[in-house]
Amino acid sequence: MPDHPDYRFTLANERTLLAWLRTGLALVAGGVAVATYAPDLGVRWGSSAVALGLVLIGLGVALAGYRRWRVNEAAIEAGRALPASRLVPAAVAAVAAVVVVVGVLVGVEVLRG
């Protein structure tokens, strides 16, 4: 048995990390786009709040992806099963919350209009 884990598993884990980093970067870019191009979204602070939420979620996703990579890498090196992760449900819930806030703010804008 070799002293090192199968490189395919390590490389797959690295590709997963890169996917989480791309997701985080896309969320940050979305936040910047909302701050730059979106109207006030029904209230004066609406677009700023949505933009800040997206940027913070993007940062959280990138950091959590890195943490998951480290935990998975340790499990791969030790020959253990990969631990379960709550990263996907947490990211989905956070983005869904932003979508709900945007929906409410757009609804306020439409009702005022």
Automatic annotation (TrEMBL):
What the entry lists under InterPro entries is as follows: DUF202
Keyword vocabulary terms for this entry: Membrane, Transmembrane, Transmembrane helix
Per its record, how is this protein called by name? DUF202 domain-containing protein
In this entry, which stretches build a coiled coil? Answer: none
Residue ranges annotated for the DUF202 domain, each copy included: 8-73
- Does the UniProt entry include the keyword Transmembrane helix? yes
**Is ATP-binding among this UniProt entry's keywords?**
no
Pfam families assigned to the protein according to its UniProt record, in alphabetical order: DUF202
Its placement in the membrane is given as: Multi-pass membrane protein
Subcellular location(s) of the protein? Endomembrane system
Q: Organism's domain of life?
A: Bacteria
Residues passing through the membrane, by range: 20-39, 45-66, 87-108
Query: Which species expresses this protein natively?
Result: Blastococcus carthaginiensis
